[in-house]
Structure formats: C-alpha cells, structure tokens
Amino acid sequence: MPSAGRAMGILLLIGLVDFVARCAIMFAAGAGDAIGAGRGMGGRGPVMAALIGIPVSMVIHAGMLSSLLPTTLGRACLVVAFQLLIVVPVVITLAALMVGVTAPQ
To answer: Which of 6, 24, 64, 84 is spaced 20 to 30 A from 57 at the CA atom?
Structure first.
C-alpha cells in the first residue's frame, strides 16, 4: 500500500495526463467545429468532445492505476467504475442545488 504522499502524487500525475488528453480532444473538436461551421453544422464540438472524453478518461485512469499500483487492470477498471458511480450522483445533486438556489422566484 502506498503512502499518502505517493498516493497524492499518483493522482496528480493521472490528473495531468488526463488534462493533456482532454485538451487534445477539445482542440480536435474545435478544429472540427470550425470546419463544420461553414456547412451550418457548428456548435456541437464541445458537447461531442465532453462525451468522447469520458471513456478516454476512464481508460487513462485505469491504465495508469494498474501500472503505478500493485493491481491488475480489471481491478483498476472496477476502481474507476466505482469512482464514477460515486461522483455522478454528487455532481447531479450539486447541480440541482445550484439551479434551485439561482432560479428566479
């Protein structure tokens, strides 16, 4: 089991690699959006990039967890899946609270 400092370093490294990958996806989506804008198909680039980024991010997280920690790829995939199952309801709850607080009365 890694120490707390090593665990934080692993998470920082995974976050940096994920950031670079998502920037590349957003850059490609922006270029595609600019090309499609001439044909009246613009505006969908950021949404598609976000949807494409989710599985790419999951693969990056699972691959790096399995390579940096003493675990298998299958177990790393389970860790990432459970992380997603925890984060999604939290984000939905916070978004609902934000909409409820900022909604006009």
So the answer is: 6
Q: What is the pLDDT of residues 29-77, one digit of tens each?
A: 776 666 555 555 556 667 778 888 899 999 999 999 999 999 999 999 9
pLDDT at 34: 61
Distance of CA 32 to the CA centre of its chain: 20
- Residues 48, 50: Cα–Cα separation, whole Å: 5
HSE-up (13 A, CA, CB side) for residue 102? 6
Please tell me the predicted confidence (pLDDT) of residue 66: 94
- Whether 84 and 58 have beta carbons less than 8 Å apart is answered as yes
User: Distance (Å, rounded) from C-alpha 17 to C-alpha 64?
Assistant: 9
Using only C-alpha atoms, the chain has a radius of gyration, in whole angstroms, of: 18
